[in-house]
Amino acid sequence: MLDHIGIHVHSYERSKEFYRLALAPLGYELILEYADWAGFGWADKPDLWIKGGKSTAPNLHIAFRAEDRSTVREFYRVALEAGGRDNGAPGVRQQYHPDYYAAAVVDPDGHNIEVVCHIPGDLEE
Question: What pLDDT is stored for residue 122 in this prediction?
Fold first, then answer.
C-alpha cells in the first residue's frame, strides 16, 4: 500500500494552483506547505507532494480513484480549466475492464494525471 508520492515541478506556484483546483473534485486539499513542498490529500493526510525547482523526469503517470463517474467528469472539466491538457476525455476504457471509467489530463510539467472509477455505470443511475 502506498503512503505518498512526491514529484518535482518546474513552477511551484503554477503547479500548486493546478493541483489545488484539479484535485478538489476528489476532496483533496492543500494540507501542508513548507520549503517549496506542497502536500495535497484529504482527512489531514497529504499523499501527493510536489516540490518546486525542476520537473521529475521522465514524466509520470499518476491515477487517483473516484467513487463515481460524475467525479471523473468534474475532475476533467476543472483540470482543463486549471491549465491541464487533454489526454483522454471521460469515458469507458474497455481495454482495461468493462467498468473502467476514466479521464486524463497532462499537468503543466507533462505528467499524466488520471482519475478512474471502477463502479459499473448502471449502479449510478
Answer: 66
